[in-house]
User: Which sequence fits this backbone?
């Protein structure tokens, strides 16, 4: 089977199938797991074959660690703010929209929405990128508490945390695409 086009892809891929794809097919299959940043998967492809999910996760983390700080920052800035302008305008990726809705961010009370907006602004002003958290399995209350807590962190600690959260988000998105 030719795996170079997304339309040729099975609904779910095994790690063996994913590892066997050429670079173009690999990026077509899983490149969207990193928000507007298929370059991550383009580079992670060189680290295949992936023996198991842990090896895939390690490859993703290593790919991000090997990227330049400017590339890492660009990846962070590609993420939308939680319940932010992109959400209001309906401009989120399908994954982000589903994840934010799953956490109830599309059903905020006016007070929660106002606090989210204020925390988003304070976070971006302090760190220079949007607050990033894997929202799957979290409530609005959990997210607001994490925003308040993480706003007090040192910039380098928060930079590392944001990258860690991006890998978590990618793994959650990969779970929806992989058959194992």
Assistant:
């Amino acid at each position: 089977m030719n795996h170079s086009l997304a339309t040729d892809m099975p609904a779910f891929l095994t790690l063996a199938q994913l590892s066997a794809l050429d670079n173009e097919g690999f990026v077509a299959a899983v490149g969207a797991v990193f928000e507007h940043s298929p370059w991550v998967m383009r580079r992670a492809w060189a680290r295949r074959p992936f023996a198991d999910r842990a090896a895939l996760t390690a490859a993703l983390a290593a790919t991000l660690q090997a990227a330049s700080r400017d590339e890492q920052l660009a990846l962070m800035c590609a993420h939308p703010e939680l319940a932010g302008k992109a959400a209001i305008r309906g401009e989120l990726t399908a994954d982000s929209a589903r994840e934010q809705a799953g956490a109830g961010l599309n059903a905020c009370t006016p007070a929660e929405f106002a606090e989210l907006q204020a925390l988003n602004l304070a976070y971006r002003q302090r760190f220079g990128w949007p607050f990033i958290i894997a929202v799957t399995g979290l409530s609005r209350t959990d997210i607001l508490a994490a925003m308040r807590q993480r706003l007090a962190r040192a910039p380098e600690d928060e930079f590392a945390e944001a990258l860690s959260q991006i890998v978590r988000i990618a793994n959650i998105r990969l779970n929806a695409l992989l058959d194992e």
User: Anything to note?
Assistant: Residues 69 and 75 are 10 Å apart (CA to CA). The two ends are 20 Å apart (CA to CA). The chain has a mean pLDDT of 87.
